[in-house]
Amino acid sequence: MNALIDLCVSRSRAVLVALFVLLVAGTVAYRGIPKEAQPDVDFPYLSVAVVLEGVSAEDAERLLVRPLEQQLRNIEGIKEMVASATEGRASVTLEFEPEIDIEQALTNVREKVDQAKAEMPADAREPTVNEIKFSQFDPMLVINLGGSLPERTMNSIARKLKDRLQAVDGVLEVNLAGIRDEVLEIVINPLAMESYGLSPADVLNFVQRNNRLVAAGSLQSEQGRFAVKVPGLIESPEDLLSLPLKTDGQKVVYFRDIAQVHRTFKDAESYSRLNGKPAVGIRVVQRNGSNLLDVVANIKLVVAEAQKSWPPGISLTYSRDKSVFVRDDVNQLVNDVVVAVLLVVICLIGILGLQNALLAGISIPGSFCAAFLLIGMSDMTMNMVVFFGLIMSVGLVVDGGIVVVELADRRMAEGLDRRVAYAEAAKRMAWPIFASISATIVAFLPLVFWPGLIGSFLKSMPIVLVYTLVASLLIAMFVVPALGSIFGRAGHLTPENRRQLMLAEEGDLNEIGGWTGVYMRVVTRAINHPGRTVGLLTTMLILVFIAYGTFGHGVTLFPAVDPPQGSVDIRARGDLSTQEKDRLVRL
């Protein structure tokens, strides 16, 4: 280690260039790290859903829920299983232990669901197994389209915009709300149908047989192999009306002879309103690990480009824009970090002087930039937990630099050359600095292995502390001596300070004045009376526990704060229709 310190001091300009590269690289890395308000935590939840049209809630429990429960309860690692049955549908939500591999759990659940499917009715749809991600319930942005245009035009614009948004990097999925699927409605004349000897079943089978794509194999030729298909999909009302139903003597009966066909929409299953007016909502969900601020900015660029081709009369409104909250939170946290750094630097200047404060304070930007590089390589994001870790590390990363600068300043005051003084100070204090920072790292390191969801949420804070402390250790032992050999000079120790130091080392402690003298005399008395000192400290410790037990308000992970937004859930008795729910909400 001594040889490496001598090398850094002798190659001080190379170390200065390396520090500059570190600062630039760290700044670039910070700009590229995804920003978000809170850490992205994988919640160990899986959901299983099965649909069986027309079945009652009681029958859904018996026919769908019970087979699933019998198979799923045998899966290892399940913490809780919650099942529910409603009319036409059943679902099971599984909560696993936090340490379970969710991908393996997903595979195990799908295998058990396949086994349970054999015990379900044949009419039941294919069960779906999905990982529950809370980002699905909290989109990063909702785009609301309103106006007086026809519904078909609004739906077409919304679907085209959805296709363009799905191609944006960082978008997981795009969902539409307040939109109805377009269908062909067939109105059959029963008298005409009966006069031609047709039944409703005949007409239904006819439509089903003629609305399919038939594969007819392939054709091999000298030019290659080509797939052959017979197109039979109904794409317009005219396609259906012109289909022949049967021949009645010399007459061909077409579909138009017994029915009328027109384009319409399915009955509404949901409604979307903005400020009381109908609107089409486009919910955009963020992909994990993407930079929310950049993704939302790109989405708005895509919407602005698409808006140029829209007809007049469409109103565009953004709601639930998480980028606004994230940007405000990140800016506030950055300001907190800057304020913490400024306060530490001001304290250093007041105690060490400007020059020595700058030499010791170089650990702050150097450690932060090194941490940014490691955060970027660790696929972490900049969130409130990471910023809290940076704030906690501000006062810790300067300790090693302060020790080296103080000892070097003293040696220079005694007449040593600055290169020799800083090299000697780094060598002399290397192991104390290493022991001090290592003890701090060891204190935070167990938090990295904190189990459960809380551990996953807070894990990035001790990681950031370890990154910054390790970087500060290297900077204090190698970078500060190199910079001191270039810019260091004796100056902040006055003759009186030197006399006080000499008295502290070799003279009478009672002659030391100021706060240093008071401190030395208190320590001397505590050493001379160890029993009283230990008894006093033990009494104070007990009193602290008693005071907290008497006046404390308990423990909570996060303080209660006023939320920036809220939601209202309305629950009513009975199975309300969609229209009844809409009227209830509008009240």
Describe the structure.
It is a single chain. The chain is of the alpha+beta class and 587 residues long. The chain has four domains: 2-38 and 326-493, Up-down Bundle (Multidrug efflux transporter AcrB transmembrane fold); 45-132, 2-Layer Sandwich (Alpha-Beta Plaits); 140-181 and 273-319, Multidrug efflux transporter AcrB pore domain like (Alpha-Beta Plaits), CATH 3.30.70; 185-265, Multidrug efflux transporter AcrB TolC docking domain, DN and DC subdomains (2-Layer Sandwich), CATH 3.30.2090. Helices cover 54% and strands 17% of the residues. The protein contains 21 helices and 16 strands. The chain has a four-stranded antiparallel β-sheet, covered by helices on one side. The chain has a four-stranded antiparallel β-sheet with strand order 6-15-5-16. A hairpin with a 2-residue loop joins strand 13 and strand 14 (277-278). The chain starts with a helix and ends with a helix.
Low-pLDDT residue intervals, each spanning 5 or more residues: none
Please tell me what the overall shape is: elongated
CATH topology of the largest domain: Multidrug efflux transporter AcrB transmembrane fold
Helix content: 40-55%
Would you identify the CATH architecture of the largest domain?
Up-down Bundle
For the record, the CATH class of the largest domain is: Mainly Alpha
Radius of gyration: 36 Å
What number of structural domains do the residues give? 4
CATH superfamily placement of the largest domain: Multidrug efflux transporter AcrB transmembrane domain
Strand order of the largest sheet: 2-3-1-4
